[in-house]
Amino acid sequence: MPELELGPVWLSLQLAAITVLVLLAVATPLAWWLAFTRSRWRTIVEAVVAMPLVLPPTVLGFYLLILLGPAGILGAPWLTLTDTTLTFSFSGLVIASVIYSFPFAVQPLQGAFEAVGRTPLEAAATLGASPFDAFRSVASPLALRGYVSAAVLGFAHTLGEFGVVLMVGGNIPGSTRVISIAIYEHVETLDYAQAHVLSAGLLVFSFLVLLSVYTLNRRMPLVRV
Amino acid sequence: MGTLSLNVALDRPGFELRVAIELALSGITALFGPSGSGKTTLLRVIAGLEREVHGTVAFDGETWASAGVHVPAHRRRIGYVFQDGRLFPHLTVEQNLQFALRRSSARPPSSIDLATAVDALDLRPLLRRRTPSLSGGEQQRVAIARALLTSPRLMLMDEPLSSLDTARKREILSHIEKLPEIFRVPVLYVTHNVEEVARLAGDVVLLSQGRAVAYGPVADVFERADFGSLTGGLEAGVVLRARVVAHERGIATLALAAQRLRVPMAAAPAGAIHPIRISARDVAIATVRPESLSIRNVLAAKILSIEPGANMNVELLLDVDGEHLRARITRDALEELELSVGRDVFALVKSVALESSLGT
Questions:
Q1: pLDDT tens per residue across span B268-304
Q2: Which end of chain A is more exposed for a tag (fewer CB within 10 A), N or C?
Q3: Whether CATH 2.60.120.200 fits B237-358
């Protein structure tokens, strides 16, 4: 049994965890807006949010490379502020991962908020709850499954990304060399034993994650509305 | 107890609401009309739940809505009981009540406290229950208590009984009846049920096709000759509060001033006040006291007014020892019997709507 290469594993977990936090912070207000707005922009925004689902990671990676590069809209100010480049850095990977996994967080949240609907929010308002209060104390507990799904899917999807990471992050140990990149490199160098350990690990982990999501979904009938 | 001034307009495809009225609210005021007349929409406008409304809403001198002003629902200090209760399913009964209490801007002693609301609605055995496991009647009782715990200045109730069976209705009605007195809050009560109006309300606002067409004490509004056309088909008639003087073998004797009405009725304790509704078409007229007749209820009356009705009919307003009755007869009969205002006649009451479901 070859020794487990921990560096990429640890880096992947870190990347996924931070990505999920950023994802939830950004996706929740957008999902809320999409669930309740009557604006005609809604359809357009929904289509844009879903783009990463259909685009090849290379297309996404290509544009992200331009956007995050030293001359890019995001990359240039970042360079002036921090004196580092966004491309081929961990921070750049987080941004790329958030965009890449965005639909996986927005869609379950939007669905959950739509399922909650306006009616409990109206009831909360008549009881003296401000809109934010109603969101926090009524809609969020009722949409708990949406949050769990968004977090788990966002986490798992980030762990599994490859193409975007390769194009934006490259393969820098301790900084951008995540599990999927490490596996690719092991296979390229015909180190099948190491590739097996990481692949099987990711396989089992993904299965366990999905299993727990579906179990949780079945066990929480109370938050179903 | 409160003055509600409304001058509002709201447009939806196929429906427009245009209500300009000033309501002096005390006790329970019914907002009455057929389905689709805009009762619920008007209640939602008052609560601040409809944003696309034009015009003004003011309560006790405080402007809730006017051009450029929209006080959001959570700042209006109203209590709202929805048709379907809308309890929060993720909270227990007690937590639902606490939710309202914690957000109430009123402070003791002017606020309504948990124990009073819990006792008034008999909720003590339910406090630890999860709300989805409650029966429909229990849910509505919790919803009423929850709305009260915000210490509202105005209670709005949207057909709170419509989803309940007869037994549950009776149980909740007796609770609703007491609200204005115990909690000193005026209630605006939406319903399309005549008997609920008769049982609960002092005043009634009649809504028809998005417009307030009549407003006043229940008895006055219901005996109007044009009641039928105003409500789009509901029969004109009168609502009386009759006292039960005796009850035997399924027949109750009700006092109408000095005269008596005998009505089949399930158990009714002597002394109970019972709302009854007598439709104009169920009252016939005779100029002499008839004998050998199947109709048991014959009341001596005097004609107060004669107004034209629909389809060659006329509507008579009758005085029965100070109470009013309405009778609908044909023009032919009017001429043949030579009826005129001031004449003494006999009113033959063919049937009395009791809606025993609302009996005390």
A1: 777 777 777 788 888 889 988 888 888 878 889 999 8
A2: N
A3: no
